[in-house]
Amino acid sequence: MRFNPDRCDRCGLCLVGCPELSMDLNDARRAVSELIEGGHGKGARAVLSACSSCFTCNTLCPTGADPYFLILERWGRLYRDRGAPAIYRFVCPNQDDNIWSGLAGMASDEERALFGRWHNNQEPPPERPLVLGNYGHLFPHIADSPLFDGFTVTDPIGHWECGAYLTQAGYLAEVEKIARMLEDPLNAYGDRETVVLTDAVRMLLTRFIPEHFGITYSPRFTSFTYWLRDALKKGEIPLTEKVNLKLAVHDNCYAKAEGAPLYDAAREVLNHTGAQLVELSHNRDSSHCCGFGRGAADIPKHAIPFEIMKGAIRKIRQAEQVKADGLVTYCTGCMYLLWAARELSGTRIAVYHLVEPVTMAMGAYRYADLARQRERAWDIIALITLGYAKGFFQRRFFIGDPADIRYRPDDNTPTTVARIIRSLLSSRAARGAYAAFFRTATKLLT
């Protein structure tokens, strides 16, 4: 998982087939050469500003040169030189304006207690651990399922989701610091099987970090998607109801690093529930990003949140085109953006994590009216709005020490401004007006 210039013949096929760029062959060849030679030139700039970090280029490369990591290297150089966009503080738990601190202030007492338990489950090393992934905190109802019975759910925000989202933006020096910081806490698990809910995290732990930095960890990390598929095949999960929904699957960017086995496993799980599966126009290797990766691109700061949500709304529209009742993701990072997009797009389509249809089929789903999910989506929209507004008055920044964590799971004091924005977005009329404004601004700014 590293760009190999000796294998690259500069054929340009990676950019010709890119779902974001779809370059002419000659332009693609020129852009690849410019990226290899330092990232300068019109073609290279076009790639670095339009890429959504979706990994498709790697699946298209006929020589196995891993061009995806060439783009990450070029982004990394840009951000080393001039810092990260101000709005990126949103996903850095060592910054005061991080999303987890903001949401802790809006969460219920029950949710904050849950966050604290997940945070504290590191000590002593947990029995039968399940690593949730940081973005699981944003929709904690996912873990309110009998599927998690018997697991010790753990996920300190200070583990930075093992560097998964920083990797996707090219902050590789910071990812290496995080990888080394995690050696002691993860190796304390011993060689026991450790189930990982978010495959982006598992890919970092089992492939990217070992191959890129030479760091390995003791546990045997297993995908929750695979675990769930196998448990259903063995009849270990009792299903009592049929899920009478037409569901489409969103294949996330990191899943492309594994390909068909992971795509197929997610669909096998849904087949067990009795749901009717339909495929999006872009699926599997050609799947579009949920939008998150657009935040990594070299684009003007005024356009970043609109570019991100434009990508997420595109996924919602694809689900509408195949007349799906719901869009299912097996990535919690994708889920929070897709839920925000669901509210801003005005669609009736629901967004589900893979856990949810299975929990429905077990007859144990408490959130079928989606009310809690909708409220949390507006919590996130309020915080994105605040972060965007602040970003106009903040300079680019350097991420700094990953061990300097500002998040506290018991924090219940949202800022006054966040509280005001969230209050303004509490009525149906206000939400409709905001969504209409957002869609209009997206057309003008992207």
Structure, explained:
By secondary structure, the protein is α/β, with parallel strands linked by helices. The chain has 19 helices and 8 strands. The chain has helices at residues 13-16, 25-36, 42-50, 56-60, 67-82, 99-104, 109-120, 164-167, 172-181, 183-187, 199-213, 224-233, 260-273, 304-321, 332-345, 355-361, 371-391, 416-424, 428-445, and strands at 129-131, 152-154, 193-196, 220-223, 246-250, 276-278, 326-329, 350-353. The strands form 2 sheets. It has a 4-stranded parallel sheet with strand order 2-1-3-4. A 4-stranded parallel sheet has the order 6-5-7-8, with helices on both faces. Strand 3, helix 11 (199-213) and strand 4 form a beta-alpha-beta unit. Helix 12 (224-233) packs across helix 13 (260-273), helix 15 packs across helix 17 (371-391) and helix 17 packs across helix 18 (416-424). It is globular and about 55 Å long. The protein starts with 12 loop residues before the first helix and ends with a helix.
SSE layout and pairings?
Elements: H1 13-16, H2 25-36, H3 42-50, H4 56-60, H5 67-82, H6 99-104, H7 109-120, E1 129-131, E2 152-154, H8 164-167, H9 172-181, H10 183-187, E3 193-196, H11 199-213, E4 220-223, H12 224-233, E5 246-250, H13 260-273, E6 276-278, H14 304-321, E7 326-329, H15 332-345, E8 350-353, H16 355-361, H17 371-391, H18 416-424, H19 428-445
Parallel strand pairs: 1-2, 1-3, 3-4, 5-6, 5-7, 7-8
